[in-house]
Amino acid sequence: MEGIYTYIGGLLGLHHNNPDHVAILMGIHLILVAIIVILIAKMATKSLRAVPTGTQNVMETFLAGVIAMGKDVVGEEHARKYLPLIAALGLFVLVSNLIGIIPGFESPTSNINVTLVLALIVFLYYNYEGIKAQGVFTYFKNFVHLGDMHPVAKFSMSLLMYPIEFVSHTSRIVSLAFRLMGNIKGDDLFLWVLLMLVPWLIPITPLVLLTFMAFLQTFVFMILTYVYLAGAIVLDESH
What we know:
It is a single chain. By secondary structure, the chain is mainly alpha-helical. It has helices spanning about 5-10, 20-45, 55-75, 75-80, 85-100, 110-135, 135-140, 150-195, 205-235. The chain is about 75% helix and about 0% strand.
């Protein structure tokens, strides 16, 4: 990884063989992504029209897609309720993924510290929503559904199942964080190898593939967030 070059690193004299420089570079790229997201939002809302055009049209299509995505998972009402969270996460992850495809820039989502924070936001929020919707006791009680069992057997099984369910829920943090980081890091390394092999000619096909993967990983992160929210707030009547 020491050979990776970034425009920002070149300008500031920062190198990837220095851990402190890596952290600074990642922070700068995070700020860059945040600025891009804010600019997109500003452009989309600068002159709102009944018949959207340009950036407004793109963003309205994106938001409609987010609602459609969540509609089948949590219902339209909840999909609209959680739209700000899902859309903000999705837009941030997408821009972070795409910026790394541009030679000379890094994807913030290729860093575990960034994806871990995103995963913690999702984990804390869906648990908060579940507790708010069901109450603390009911929410944690519904972690395990043992059905109609003898009280003694149910108590014995609960001692076994609750630790398993606790580990299962907390492992979602690791799953979300490492899935996103691993895929984007792999894409970045793939692009880096291409630049080493053909520095003056970047094949179009790999760039198309990397762009598709950037959108796919964004979709996966968003749909999993909806799924976790659904599991926290939607009660199955059979339970």
